[in-house]
């Protein structure tokens, strides 16, 4: 189902200070890049042109203008094949300027969490991702509801505090 929400690029383009992203799923809909990795293909990290995408440039441009971008992932252990791949390609996120941390799901039991992945922009605007059971994006919802923003902000910060920085998290 198409979304009428503003694009991620629009929202990040309006962002002035911070953007945080919480991911709660152990798998998402497979992409061509994931399928290539499953076949044994690996990224040539020395050949940036081969893997640098418009998303990476958007992140790099936002960080360059002072936006702090943090991503936290809550994952089950042992991790899924999809999470192993995500961990591998997170090098691109880090290179673009994101800060990334991983939290084993067992360490999140007493954190009140929202039911969906989200992006929170400048602590006041949420882009909530709704997925189908097989990980396809169904819809993105935009909200500024203060109670929902507070829940998501508080959840993200609690996850971030407990999570392991990317370079220390081994899959």
Structural account:
By secondary structure, this protein is α/β, with parallel strands linked by helices. Helix content is 36%, strand content 23%. It contains six helices and seven strands, in the order H-E-H-H-H-E-H-E-E-E-E-H-E. It has helices at residues 8-14, 32-38, 48-51, 54-64, 81-96, 146-162, and strands at residues 18-23, 68-75, 99-104, 118-121, 125-131, 137-143, 164-165. A seven-stranded mixed β-sheet has the order 6-5-4-1-2-3-7, with helices on both faces. Helix 4 (54-64) crosses helix 5. It starts with 7 loop residues before the first helix and ends in a 6-residue tail after the last strand. The relative contact order is 0.21.
Give keywords:
globular, alpha/beta, DUF6879, DUF6879 family protein, seven-stranded mixed β-sheet
- Main sheet overview: 7 strands, mixed
Radius of gyration: 16 Å
Number of strands: 7
Strand order of the main beta sheet, please?
A: 6-5-4-1-2-3-7
Termini separation: 34 Å
Which structural class fits the helix and strand makeup?
alpha/beta
Beta-strand residue percentage: 15-25%
Shape: globular
Percent of residues in helices:
25-40%
The average pLDDT is 96
Question: Count of DSSP helices?
Answer: 6
Give the topology string: H per helix, E per strand: HEHHHEHEEEEHE
Low-confidence segments: none
